[in-house]
């Protein structure tokens, strides 16, 4: 009798430990660093709040994997994961996976909008007028694999892609190893609230503003096109919901 009870309890624990039991599971990777208010390595932030709403709407389960960004995109290209977020659009990224809307991404199905801005050392004369840089005396740094690199290279600027994290980039800038840094708007806001802020200045004109998407693997879209369409539609619906708008407003961000 005791053995039967023990087996029953063990089976129940196994069932309860499987949150996606009986539901479709979709594996998503994301960058293994905090990018507030959008996401944290501990699965917090607005991106995760949005995706939880998508889970509830579709009765599916997202399995989140936190890994370095370039590896995340490589996993997507290899169909080793079902999707990646949050990804801005670059034409060559169509090789990695599928955007909502295909070759011309549908911005209505974005997860959020963010900017890239310029940081310089306190007292530096580096300037950006919205089209051109001036008074550059070295390279402009950006994070490894980030799309802003294409914008900088298109101007034939010297660039440095050797930093994984925004705080690493800021320290290189402060140390004089960079003339300026191109940083995501959310990362820049965090830096300008942190201990490095007294040594930094943020220029007022953004380099670029972009929508960021959940992109899905070629394999998932090919094998389950209806599921892919439902996911992207649910992202749009959840982002426009009063519940999500309230969360975004509380963080003081555009969505």
UniProtKB/TrEMBL annotation:
UniProt keyword list: Signal
Return any one Pfam family short name.
SBP_bac_3
Provide the leader sequence positions.
Answer: 1-22
Where does the Solute-binding protein family 3/N-terminal domain lie? 41-247
Name the chain's protein. Answer: Transporter substrate-binding domain-containing protein
- Protein source organism: Duganella guangzhouensis
């Amino acid at each position: 009798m005791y053995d039967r009870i023990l087996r029953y309890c063990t089976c129940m624990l196994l069932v309860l430990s499987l949150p996606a039991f009986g539901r479709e599971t979709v594996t998503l990777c994301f960058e293994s660093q905090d990018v507030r208010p959008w996401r944290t390595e501990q699965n917090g932030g607005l991106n995760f709040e949005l995706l939880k709403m998508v889970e509830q709407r579709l009765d599916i389960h997202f399995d989140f994997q936190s890994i370095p960004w370039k590896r995340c995109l490589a996993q997507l290209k290899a169909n080793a994961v079902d999707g990646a977020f949050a990804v801005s659009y670059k034409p060559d990224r169509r090789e990695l996976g599928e955007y909502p809307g295909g070759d011309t991404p549908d911005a209505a199905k974005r997860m959020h909008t963010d900017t890239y801005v310029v940081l310089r050392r306190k007292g530096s004369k580096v300037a950006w007028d919205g089209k051109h840089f001036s008074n550059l005396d070295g390279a402009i740094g950006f994070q490894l694999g980030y799309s802003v690199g294409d914008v900088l290279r298109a101007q034939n600027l010297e660039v440095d892609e050797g930093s994984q994290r925004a705080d690493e980039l800021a320290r290189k800038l402060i140390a004089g190893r960079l003339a300026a840094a191109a940083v995501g708007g959310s990362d820049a806001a965090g830096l300008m609230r942190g201990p490095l802020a007294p040594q930094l200045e943020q220029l007022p004109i953004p380099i670029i503003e972009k929508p960021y998407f959940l992109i899905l693997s070629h394999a998932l879209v090919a094998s389950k096109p209806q599921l892919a369409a439902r996911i992207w539609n649910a992202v749009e619906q959840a982002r426009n919901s009063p519940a999500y708008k309230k969360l975004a407003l509380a963080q003081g961000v555009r969505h």
